[in-house]
Design brief:
Layout: E1 19-20, E2 25-26, H1 32-36, H2 55-58, E3 78-79, E4 104-109, E5 112-117, E6 126-130, E7 132-135, H3 137-146, E8 152-159, E9 162-174, E10 181-182, E11 188-194, E12 201-206, E13 217-218, E14 232-236, E15 247-249, E16 252-254
Parallel strand pairs: 1-9, 2-7, 3-11, 8-16, 10-13
Antiparallel strand pairs: 4-5, 6-12, 7-9, 8-9, 11-12, 14-15
Length: about 260
């Protein structure tokens, strides 16, 4: 059975002018109906929610995590068991909601502030979420015009013919995930995870084994590290990877 090697979020910012939040909070333009609405599923499992008999697991069509809490496959989205489910809080389908992993460290390098790990992370393990204010696109545009250096993340989920857009701004109110930098050759990726809200949490998972003292990175363009030159910004990329595109992509996840 998976033993949690994570903890409640006991991290904080290194800048006192910032406000720490452990998970998303509603901001201007947030759809409060979706924010307060729990996904319309409840499992009645008495085991560890390992099979497709679990309604939450069945929504994706396969198990999300193995016995050690690691991703079994890279799904476009995940539904975890929620507070209305009858399973135990230690069930296998509860990972992101348990909080970020221990051993994360904010440090300064040539890119500015970055996030490192003091404990080795295995491929498929959850690192932390990217949390902040949930806003809408008009508010994101307004804030972008006011401050070119922002932490606004836009993610578009494509399901059938529908596109669901989630915008999270961690510029002033955010968690430790705001310190993760871009890399054209990342070791993590973001997957939308729904738990107690129709609005997803942006969960960051390792896509490679990450060594102790290694910087944690993801690709701002999504797809786990797409190298397309489309949709590049004018900001120089400092990742120094062998396949660096030279410029940062726009911080928008495309799924």
């Amino acid at each position: 059975m998976y033993k949690n090697n994570q903890t409640e979020d006991n991290y904080d910012h290194i800048d006192n002018s910032l406000i720490y939040t452990t998970t998303n909070i509603p901001g201007p333009g947030c759809d409060m109906n979706n924010f307060n609405c729990c996904p319309n599923y409840v499992c009645n499992c008495t085991d560890s929610c390992k099979t497709l008999n679990c309604k939450c697991v069945r929504l994706v069509g396969c198990n999300n995590y193995d016995n050690f809490g690691k991703l079994i496959s890279i799904n476009r989205f995940i539904y975890e068991c929620n507070n209305l489910c009858n399973c135990m809080s230690s069930c296998q389908n509860r990972v992101v909601q348990l909080g970020p992993r221990i051993g994360l460290r904010i440090s300064h390098n040539t890119k500015g502030y970055s996030l490192y790990t003091d404990i080795a992370i295995e491929k498929g393990q959850f690192v932390c979420e990217y949390a902040g204010e949930i806003i809408d696109l008009p508010e994101a545009k307004r804030r972008s015009n006011l401050d070119s250096e922002n932490y606004i993340f836009v993610i578009n989920e494509h399901v059938a013919d529908c596109v669901t857009t989630t915008v999270i701004d961690a510029t002033i109110i955010g968690n430790i995930g705001r310190y993760i930098n871009h890399s054209c050759q990342p070791n993590c990726m973001i997957i939308p995870v729904r738990i107690d809200s129709l609005i997803p949490r942006l969960a960051i998972f390792a896509i490679n084994d990450i060594k102790c003292n290694e910087e944690i990175t993801y690709h701002y363009g999504g797809e786990g590290g797409s190298h397309s030159h489309n949709n590049l910004s004018e900001i120089k990329c400092l990742c120094e990877s062998f396949i660096c595109n030279g410029f940062l992509p726009r911080k928008t996840g495309l799924f």
